Amino acid sequence: MGVVFCYNTTYMELNTQHFKDLLLKESETLEEQLASIGRKNPDDAEDWEAVATDLDEDNADEFDVAEDKENFDNNKAELDQLEIQLNEVKSALQRIEDGEYGKCEICDKGIEEDRLEANPSAKTCKEHMN
After folding, report:
1. How many angstroms separate the CA atoms of 91 and 81, rounded?
2. What element of type H or E holds 45?
3. Hey, which residues does 60 pair with through a beta bridge?
């Protein structure tokens, strides 16, 4: 399965299976990282939530409670970023299934292969990446 793109009159077939494999591996890694600092929301399997450590606040000193709160906040921030990355990977996998992978969302031209190698979930070409 491949998609053919024209780059300045040079035709090139994009190996979508290669990028699908990269994206699936990245998805697996992200899921492992998410599981190490959070858990799936029991009410929404597509959502992740940070988990607090079990700290007996009645017997913990102020420093331990503050440190636990800081760790939770850090985990929450990291979890949010990982969840965004996972959603971008899932979106890229869906674009492969839809036959739209590798097209810039802005100009509809092909995304450069070296850009996709560096970031397989890229949505834009180099010209429109910011």
Report:
1. 15
2. strand 44-50
3. none
Candidates 41, 39, 50; CA nearest to 74 is 50
CA dist., res. 115 & res. 104, Å (int): 11
User: Which residue's entry shows tokens 């802005």?
Assistant: 106
The size of the chain, in residues, is 130
Overall CATH class of domain 2-121: mainly alpha
Sign of CA dihedral 113, 115, 121, 125: negative
Q: How far apart are CA 11 and CA 3, in angstroms?
A: 10
Q: Specify whether the CB–CB gap between 46 and 31 falls below 8 A.
A: no
Alpha carbons 73 and 29: distance in angstroms, whole number: 22
Which pLDDT tens digit goes with each residue over 74-112? 888 999 999 999 999 999 999 999 999 999 999 999 999
pTM: 0.75
